[in-house]
Structure formats: structure tokens, C-alpha cells
Amino acid sequence: MDDAWMSSDGGVTWIQIKKAFGNSSDAFIGRGNHKVVVVEDRLMIFGGETFNPVARHTTYLNDVWQVSLPTEPCCEGCVKNVSCLPNDSDWNMLTSNAEWYERSGHTVVYEPPSSNNAFRHRVYLMGGKNASSIFSDVWTWSLDPDEEWINDIVQLDTTNSSENQANDAFVSVASPLSKLKRFHLPLVGIDGQLSKFTNHARHSIVDQSDLDVMESVGVRTVGDLVSADLYTILKLRGFDYPGRTVTAVPNLCLLREIAISLVKKCSVTAPTNSRVDDGWKTEKLQIESVPKSSFCGVGDDTKPCERGDWDGCSPIPDVSVVDVFGLGDVDVPQGLHNVSSIIQETFCLQVPASRYVGAAEFIDSKVVVMGGVGHDDMILHRDSWTRDEKNPKAVITTKPRSRSPQFQFYFDSNEAGAHVFEYKIMRDETDITPWLITTKQRGVNVAWLDNKKGGPGRGWYTLYVRAVDPAGNRDALFSTQANVYRWYYVPPIPYGVVSGCIVTALLLIVAVYFEHRRRKRRAIIRKFELRRLRRKFKLKSENDTPFASTGHIGRD
């Protein structure tokens, strides 16, 4: 049906504002499972599905219509005052082919102008289904016919150029490989200042030509690369059946290691005893294990055989070349790539699972999504989600004074719920620590920088800190005005060692003093004894003198 009715008294009286079965080919067509919102004095209709009983075919729509509703004082007598009611020409199609896919059973929420959205109207469209898919994407629109819909959370095969750069670091299993990037923190100048709030520097890990090569073999997303079989991986590395020419992706094993690490980081195992989806799990990529059998090609039998569990990129201990059936000799990578820094700067994209006929409302300045039906009609979501697009902002409240041995940091943020912080310490553009987690109460103690405790010792250091809110949002901008601090660390004076040295010195002085006294006393005693001996010798000599002078010679 394509009729429309309205009520201005809470549903007691209904007025038909559009008759059914319009004859015009460009008129609003009948539909079901569409979504309607009222924006001020406008009724807006989004998508839906229509059925052709002759062809017995369902057509899904992605058009947007609007009509102005009668308002007071006209509507006080709108039952009789037909001139107040909209006619067929008042139904305007704003677009016949919006940027989102055709669907029905979706959810639409209207957000009125406020300081949170720069005082602009905004509409959110989420989920829904068509004949081939059930959606989990989210689209936003400003209600301006000249502006396009923006894919608020990108999960499609292509990225949207209008996507907010703050979301670049959020990746899921379904994200295209073009989303994989390296992120570098903005560096502080020699003067110790980073006055302007600056975002990460972004660098693509894979270029477009390599993306085209991978897409040619069906590898488009992070999940595709992780689940690719051995021969696909080796083909992308440049190994193919004899006689075939293939273009290699130079850093394929690096990309695969990143993809595997992301799947491990972002996968959450759902309970096995329930068919009810909690909605908080991201896509869990299941990779079936391959039997660990060995099989060889027709090459040199002295070379190791390719094992059935080898993925084409992982190193094999003490093996540099394997013989793969159908391909011959294949080089084995000799080491794993260290992707920890990339993984730490890449975050898991959490979105409501695919669903249709869910409920949504704008409550307390937030979009709230509840329930819905999943891929299987037996999967009924009973979860609730809120949308949080604001990045928290961290500020360093307590910091050590430069050129001092002070060591304590404390942080705060502008969001009440953002009590968790991540921090990193760098020295001369080199990471001293990875991103580490702390809380507002705990802060950060950097006393371990002391070289006497095994740290790097005195020098210039830079600390970056970012707040983490319950939605997983983090600071997108960095500045020495708030969340960056550069200081010169001086190890504390080792008072214990100094005190020990002083005590040792005092004891040594006392020992030397007493030893001096002992030696001096001993010298005096020896001197006295010598004087006594001299005196005795002199007396004896005087006693012996008379005998010598008289010439008497004593005899026995």
C-alpha cells in the first residue's frame, strides 16, 4: 500500500494525507518494512521493499522521500479543511539511489541539532536486509539533499573518501586491506614544544598495485588474507605452476602476519551453550587445521617435503627451501616480522552484529540500538548498543620538573568514564616502552629510568599519553599543551651510597686517628725505654770507670 495517515490527538482521530494506489509513474510507490521519522514538520521515508504480485518478485529500495505535514493552526480544522493536507505533488523524492544498499527492516534514528553535532540535523541508518545480505553497516546524513550519505562504520569492500580520519586505526576482520597502515606519533621539536594539536602520521603498508594483485585472486579483506590457502599465498609470493607468469606482492608475509595478529587481537569467542548472540563479539574467523602430512613435488628428493600444515610464510627451523607439489622449490622465510608496533596502533572495530527489524532511539544525546533478528531466524539479538563518536582528551596534571630526579606522572581526561590511560616513552625518536596501560589513580612512575636500576639513565625523554573511554575511543591529537611532555631526566643522588661513603670515611678517619695515637704512644714508650737504657748504660759505664783507671784487672 502507498497510502499515508496521520493523527494529531494521540491516535484518537486519523486523517488520510495520501490516497492509496497513486497512478503517476514517478509517485511514491507502496512498500513495507520501510522506516519513517518526523523531522520538525517533515515526514521522511527511507527504503523498504515492494512486491510485484504478477512477477512474484520482491524489490528492495534505497530511495528517500519527504512530505511536509500540516501544522497548527491549519490542523485544528484539517479534517474539513482539505486545502491544509498535502497532495500528491507535495511528495518529493530526495534521491532514488542513496549511497547505502537497497534494504528493508533497517533502523533509522533522527538526531536533532545540538552542540554535539555542530547544531546540524543528522540521521542514522543501520542494519536491515535484502535478498542476499543482512547488514551491520551504519550510515549518517545531514538531511541536506546536496550532501552524500557517509558510511559511518566502513565494512564494505570499498572505503569512503569522506570517512573521518580519526577512525582510520579501527579495523575488523571484514575491513579491506587498504585499511592497514603504519602510524607514527608526531615528534616534539628541539625546543620541547608541540604547540599545535597534531594527529598521527599515516603511511600505507600496501600500495594500490599490490591490492589489485591480491584482489585478482580473491583476497580483499583482512579475513581473506588470513584464511587464504597455501597455493594462494605462494602465488602472491611469486610462485606459480610452471609456465605461468605471476606478479609477486613484495611484503605479503608482513601483511599476513599483521592480519593474523589482528584476528587474534579482535576475535572473541562466544559462549557455546547458547544460540543467542550477545552482539559484542566481532567476527570470529575459523581456520580449519590441515593434517600435518608431508608431500613432495617432482624436484630434488634431497630437499625437505612441504608439510601439510605450512602456511607459506612461517619459518621452518633449519630449512631454507621446500619442494612443493606442482610448484617445485619454494624459498622459506627465515624469520617472523615484528608487527607489535603496528598492532598497538591498530584497534578493533566493534559494531552491532548484522541484524534487521531492530529498535533504535535517540536517548540522552546518544543513539541507542536494541535487539533484532540475525542471519538465522533462530538468532534473536537481545543486546543494546550506544554510539560514541567522541574521542576523549587526556591531560597531564602532574609531571616531573625538567633537570630533576622527580619521577611521578598523573593524568586526567575530559570524559567522566575515561579512567584508563595508555602511555609511551620515547628517547631520540626511539621507543623506550611500548604503549602501556595505567589508571588515573595509579599514574606513572618513571624512577626505573635511573641507570643504577638498569634504566637508560639521564637524558631527554618524551612521554605521550592518551585516554581510553569505555567505547575504546582514544585521543586522536597530541600536543605539549595537554598530553605530551618532554623533559630532561637526571638520576637522583644516591644518598644511601653517599651516606655509606661518609660513614666509611668517618670510620676510616677514626681508625687512622686511633692508629696514629697507638703508634705515637708506642713511639713515646720506645723513646722512654731508649732513654732508660741509655741512662742504665751510662750508670754502668760510670761504675766501671774506677777499675779501669787504677789498672786493676779482675780475675775469676
Distance between the termini: 164 Å
Low-confidence region ranges:
154-163, 270-291
- Rg over CA atoms, rounded to whole Å, is 41 Å
Q: Give the overall pLDDT as a whole number.
A: 82
Q: How would you characterize the largest beta sheet?
A: 5 strands, antiparallel
Q: Please state the overall shape, judged from the principal axes of the Cα atoms.
A: elongated
Continuous helix count:
6
How many strand segments? 29
Task: Please indicate the percent range of residues in DSSP E strands (runs of 2 or more).
Answer: 25-35%
Question: Which structural class fits the helix and strand makeup?
Answer: alpha+beta
Please give the share of residues in helix. Answer: 10-25%
Question: Key features?
Answer:
five-stranded antiparallel beta sheet
